[in-house]
Specification:
Layout (H helix, E strand, L loop, with lengths): L5 H10 L5 E5 L10 E3 L5 H6 L2 E4 L13 H8 L9 H11 L6 H5 L7 E5 L5 H8 L2 E5 L2 H9 L18 E6 L9 H11 L6 E4 L46 H5 L1 E7 L12 H8 L4 E4 L4 H6 L20 H16 L3 H22 L2 H22 L5 H12 L9 H14 L14
Parallel strand pairs: 1-3, 3-4, 4-5, 6-7, 6-8, 8-9
Antiparallel strand pairs: 1-2
Helix pairs in contact: 7-10, 8-12
Length: 440
């Protein structure tokens, strides 16, 4: 999905205490290493003298996806230029291809041994791998900032007002694709049909996913999620919407349904990674049930939102087992579906009040300041830590250049002298190791 997010990254850059070189995936939403690049063109001197900031805030972290040194070198081959001797470039490519996403900051002759990784998840094994490998990790809820932009008209959209009890559907369930770790959605839809909840829901799904796989031929990565009766999915209408539809809202869907059931990107995992999918019903003043990683409702409450207990049974959010969590969500939906008369009226009034509070909070300065201040505080802390990790990798390349009589990438002697002076101040040369002599 190609969404113009450069303004977001310019805003992030403006929160840094000093200059840095930002690295992003472009087109935005891509996860391919050959789409990883600098936010803007930067001089060699600026790249050398400022920390690298890796923006991995749109998609879940995946350490193994970027741990191939061969992939990094292949991606760099097209960048060989006359700025530096080809032989030195090849030496750098070989050496710096072993540091996962940090390879790019180091390859660009970065003065610092570490880099900042900006992300949007909690309870993540991949996040721990990055921390263990000298990345200074910065958390913020990136999609909160994005969603406030995408759904900004919802704040004043009079069409979103609906009468209690006048909806055509009990549940609104957006469920387009089920590839890339979202196979749990097929299991959820099977349960939905088995409980006849599809008859009171507005939903659809791609019968053939974005990778060209039909659900009848699909082999599940998690055997626990395998369907007992795959043909039931055929009862769910086929979805033909483009992925960019998530960057907007359809007022009619919200006024003609009572409760959203949000099927997040990450579910069959212990990590919490919440996207615009969670924030769209909030922006539209819609009550919701959240199918996401365990503990996601607490994550939301930490940002000042209210959830819907005791009116909705939210014990599902504490369930670690993915299948049992789905079963508890279906159970909560069944309880809602069975409400009648005064009980239904009281339920509807109370969840409406919570939804209205959440919408007001979502568009408030208080919420935006929570997200911004968390990011700014974490960025400043990480920036100061990275500044203390100067010289090891940079000096090795300088020593290699000297040993092989190769020209250093930074040809300007004055600028190179400034960098070397900075290195000497932070990394005094070890007299027992002449190879560490930075004089070039």
């Amino acid at each position: 999905m190609n969404v113009p997010l450069d303004n977001l990254y310019n805003w992030v850059e403006g929160l840094l205490p000093e200059p840095a070189t930002l690295y992003i995936f472009y087109p935005h939403g891509s996860k391919e290493i050959f789409n990883f690049r600098k936010l803007r063109k930067t001089s060699d001197f600026d790249m050398c003298s400022s920390p690298g900031v890796i923006m991995h805030d749109q998609e879940p972290l995946n350490w193994n996806a970027y741990n191939s040194s061969q992939d990094h070198r292949k991606n760099w081959e097209s960048e060989l230029t006359e700025v530096c001797e080809i032989d030195l470039k090849k030496i750098k490519m070989q050496y710096f291809s072993n540091f996962n996403l940090k390879s790019y900051a180091l390859y660009n002759s970065n003065l610092f041994d570490s880099a900042i990784l900006v992300h949007s998840e909690k309870n993540s094994e991949d996040l721990e791998k990055y921390k263990q490998n000298d990345f200074f990790c910065v958390h913020y809820w990136a999609h909160a900032v994005i969603a406030r932009d995408w759904y900004r008209f919802a704040e004043i959209d009079s069409r979103l007002v609906r009468a209690i009890g006048k909806t055509n559907n009990k549940f609104l369930i957006y469920c387009r694709d089920w590839s890339h770790g979202r196979e749990y959605r097929l299991k959820f839809l099977e349960m939905l049909v088995q409980n006849n909840l599809d008859t009171v829901s507005q939903t659809s799904v791609m019968h053939t996913n974005s990778e060209g796989m039909n659900f009848l031929q699909y082999q599940f990565s998690n055997p626990k999620l395998e369907l007992t009766n795959p043909e039931l999915i055929s009862q769910i209408p086929n979805n033909t919407f483009a992925s960019a539809a998530s960057a907007d809202y359809n007022y009619y869907d919200f006024i003609n349904s009572a409760i959203s059931v949000v099927l997040e990107t990450v579910f069959d995992d212990q990590r919490i990674h919440l996207t615009e999918k969670t924030l769209r019903p909030i922006a539209c003043s819609h009550p919701f049930i959240l199918a996401a990683g365990p503990g996601s409702l607490e994550y939301i409450r930490n940002y000042g939102f209210q959830t819907f207990a005791p009116w909705i049974d939210e014990s599902y959010d504490l369930e670690i087992d993915s299948v049992k969590r789905l079963e508890k969500i279906i159970l909560a939906m069944n309880k809602i579906q069975n409400l009648q008369g005064d009980e239904l009226y009281i339920f509807s009034q109370n969840i409406k009040k919570i939804a209205e509070f959440n919408k007001k909070h979502f568009f408030s300065d208080e919420f935006f300041d929570l997200v911004k201040d968390e990011l700014k505080t974490n960025l400043i802390s990480a920036y100061n830590l990275v500044k203390k990790t100067q010289g090891k990798h940079y000096l090795k390349i300088l020593a290699t250049a000297k040993k092989n009589n190769l020209k250093h990438q930074l040809q300007d002697r004055t600028k190179r002298t400034l960098l070397l002076r900075q290195l000497r101040q932070s990394c005094p040369r070890d007299p027992s190791n002449p190879q560490e002599d930075p004089s070039v």
